[in-house]
Write a structure and sequence with these properties.
The complex is a heterodimer of chains A (about 170) and B (about 140). Chain A has about 170 residues and is of the alpha/beta class. Chain A contains seven helices and seven strands. In chain A, about 40% of the residues lie in helices and about 10% in strands. The termini of chain A are far apart. Chain B is mostly helical and about 140 residues long. The chains are: A alpha/beta (about 170), B mainly alpha (about 140).
Chain lengths: ~170, ~140
Amino acid sequence: MGVLVRAVLLCFVGSVLGIAGNALSPHPARLGIPVHATAESNDAVCQDPRTSVARISVEEAKPLCIACTAAFVDARSAQEYAAGHITGAVHLAPGQPAGPLLPKLSAAPTVIVYDRDRDCAAADQIAVLLKSNGVRDVRVLTGAWPEWLAGGGPGESGTCSLCAEGRQ
Amino acid sequence: MMARVFAVCRVVLGALFIWAAVTKLPDIAAFAQDVANYRVIPAALVPIVAAAVVGIELLAGIALVIGVMDRPAAAVLAVLLAAFIALLAQALLRGIDLRCGCFGGDERASWWTVVRDLVMLAAAVAVARGPLPARTNVTNPA
């Protein structure tokens, strides 16, 4: 029996095994029900059960932004940040050093991180990074930037001057 | 010497895929969501694809570790890894921000993930091809 035939056989048996394993899983995928991307689903907003980072809704975050009682961190790309971001937010994308921004963020009573997608993967990564660097109250904005815009939250455009100073 | 290198590649690759499958098994629903977030597979097929991938990873991983049907298993994993790389690359190029769904955690997809998969792909292809036969000296009978 050739390698190809055995490979196909292995795929078939593996698929059957996977579907059987799914039935025994504590959290199985529901086979008959379509699963849409989080970003395309209006009711699934950054609610990944695997993350330990606290969440905050747009309705809760807006008053904190207006009263300047929370620091906002934009985890999208620099271009997206420049095109428009939450008023007063600093820019910190995955892969960039958090060090220069830590004094400002550590001094804030609450730090709210957001990114571009309702999946919030980048925001979660930045939130974990900030927490590991001693920032105490870090939350991720549910619904991300699209929800903030839709909710009429205050925004501005331009580059991050504080970030540029800190990274020089 | 080369046979030992291939054996190490085979066992390490197999163990990695067993680990990948075992970490997904407790929450296949979350893995299905990760698969959906790549925005390539039709929503109706996502749950069955997610379950099938976990089973294939587990079976192929076991086959590699115990050395039974190791070349077909490596070929299957090479195809899977090529698919993962294509999915990751298209998501990153489209600016989709997502978790990679790699080892059941909440690791974010990045170009580093692509590089890691490329290394595993190279190992899978090497195991699928098998060690090259030793050169034999052919003497001219004339």
